[in-house]
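Why do we care about 3D structure at all? Because function follows from shape, and shape follows, mostly, from sequence. That is the central idea of this module. The next example makes it concrete: a single protein chain, its amino acid sequence, and then its structure expressed as tokens.
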Amino acid sequence: MLPRPTVSVYPSSAQAGSIFTIKSSFIKGHALKFTIRDSSGAVSSPVALLDDESSGDAVKDDGTYTNVIDTKGAASGSYFVDVAVGDKTLKNAAVFTVTEPGSGCVKVVNRGSSSEKIDLVFVPNNYENSELANFAANILPRHFNYLLSKEPFASHAYMFNVWYLPNPQPFDCSYSNAKNCKDHYKSLVSSSCGFYDDVLVLDKNSLKETGYSFERSGSFQATGQSSSPGTEVLTLHEFGHTFGNLADEYDAPKRISDTNAPNCDVAACPKWCSTSANLKIPECYKLADKTSCETMKYSYSFNVEGVAGWRNVDVNCVWTRTGNTDVCSFPYSINAYASDVSFASSCESGAACYYGCDGQQGFRSSKHSIMGDAAVREFNDVSKRHIEAVLQCCYSGVKGGDDVAFCTDWNKRNGGAYSACISKLPAVELPVPKDGSCEAVAGVLVVSKDTKICKDVYRAAGGVPPQIVIATDNVLLDCDGASLVGEKSSGYGIKIAGASNVEIRNCKASGYSYGLYAKDSNNVKVLDSDFSGNFKLVDSSAFLDILRREPYGGGILFENVNGGLVRGNVLRNQQDGLSFIDVKNVEVRENKADHNAGWGIKLYHSAGNTIDGNDFSHTLRACDADSPSLLCKAAGLDSDKIGCGCDTAAMLLVSSSNDNAITNNNMRHSGDGLFIDGKNGLPSTSNYIANNDASYSPHNAFEDVFNANNKFVDNVASYSNYGFWLSYSKNILVDGNTAIGSLQDGIAADRGSGFIIKNNDLSQGTNGINIFSGTPERGYESSESTDYYITNNIFSRNKDSAIRIENTGSVTISSNNFECGTCLKLIHADSSSKISVANNWFGSADESKFKSLIVGNVKYNPWLSKPVNIGGGLK
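And the structure:
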């Protein structure tokens, strides 16, 4: 009896005119046919599914049967696929949907629900239908990868979803028709992706201008010549307009009046150099007498009209009358164009007063910014701070401000432009005590019922640090912002012992071993509290002990806890943010556990937990047992004298920490981003790691060693020493990740086996993938490097090799896109390895151009004549 074929269609939904691929897995050597039925029951003619390297099939006679459907002219609606094998027919084997033009929004970066994320919708314009596959595989990811790799977006990449709206119908988006273009595409996107936050149109050729945004904060931008490398910089510039409400900073007099924008100002620069809070005024404006004023000089450059070349001129401050008052000021209204006026030494950090932003009448905060010069490729400090505020005040949580006082003041300083996006989150009132009373904390306070703490700062009295103890079920503790201050980093600020259904809110505790300790309890909730500034290890001479059960110290410690929620807490500037020992089924969401010196969160023998949407970034320590590196310096440590890391990690899983869901977390600039260690016979298995960003690690963005069955999906692991270090692990899935710019390898594996590596961007490193058998670890001599399946990946411009293989068993490499640039090799395999590399795109259909770049026991024939459509998942 023949088995049941498995059938899939990609994409599952797209607009009329799109190409759908039908794929079926079955026994080799059979004849399969499919028919299509629409919702009325009409049936198409039978079409063969092929296993002969044509019509989308990748490998001949491998039991995967494929064909494509062109839906040009098809009516919108659902279509059902029936597959026949001999005289047997599998009805409704798969279904796909054809939508009207302007429909069919496809999510390519999934960070979570649209109600809680910022949704960017990219739309191609003036691309032929035949070009959309290359657009989706290469052009689209290049643009949004670049956008989300730049600060401050990079540190908040977990907040962004990316969508793709295929659009085969061209539209005139020239600058003269900008309004009509905006109206057309916003209407098109609204009908298909009504949840969008920003629309970004990538125009192939008709938009001769480099790009434009239709009004700042207009949620619409168009970038021209988007197929050309480098135009992703223009996308970042235009996004600064639409998302940050930033103005152009060109050195162009009388361009447009943008001095009310966050990054531009009038002559005296009050936004950065006035007497407002936390700012300093320029020396000119501090002088109260005429003589002192007129002796102050500033050097700048200007071009006198009619005279070629630039001249350096010393210009005095001037004593002028404003109303009825004589004041010292800078003579900005001069008959020359000045480009380089600077008060930087006495202004807010990272800001100054430079000409720009409408020439003589406007000033910008720095000479160098992507808003003024695409070659800079970065926002200046003022713009970064403003965008950070937009992210916090307009999109934090469920698209609402989480710090109302800050956001309200920021909104006022921006002329009330952000009132609509700032909303005060609803307060949760403590139901008791009804008489409005509260408890003070003197010494040890035992809480056995719902209690509110009197808002105060409680310190040690008589040598006894303040402490709150809960050992009773069904207790709600609201500290109302009260602070407990410990001594000598010992003891616990709040302790929960043997209790169920305990909830902690609005508490602060610092100066303890741990701010909060819960043990032998069930359903513990810790919400909106601050447990920062607790114990921190001073010794920087050795590696941390990752396998020790006893924690070092830090913010929150759960031990033998089942069920609960840790949400919205601040857990910074200590050894660890959170430590879990024997913890199950706890949700850890939206905490700020960054800038710690050990682990943002450590799981020891803890399973079934959900860790989502947290900031564990900058978990790092100076350590002279590790080697200095530029990535240490980038994280703020003196890399010339001391190393960093020593097994610090944003997240650490050890001792059989299984079945955890780790999603949407920021783990950037940490010793390791995620470190899963299963040595000594206690592997941590079946963890799902998705949509996290662990870039800029001086060691490994993701390290998974001596484990099995873990899945890495849609993560970012860029600009690290290694993107993924996956040694001695088995049955690992690496799907849809981005690991570009690795100092060493995008993916490295010593004696790994059973890997599926697909849909990843592994570009611009030393090696894209490096798999090998090194000298075996004691106790693991039988581990072999074998059974790798590598498909649908992008390898572009790696310095040494796209894929490097040594002493490895079976490796199948198919349907990948290789681009050499100045690489030494595309595939470099030793003679002992068994490699299959047929049906890849090697950057050219001309064998003579890539033959010399494939070295070793490798058969590359047949090769593909055009690039593979890699599709969604890349970031």
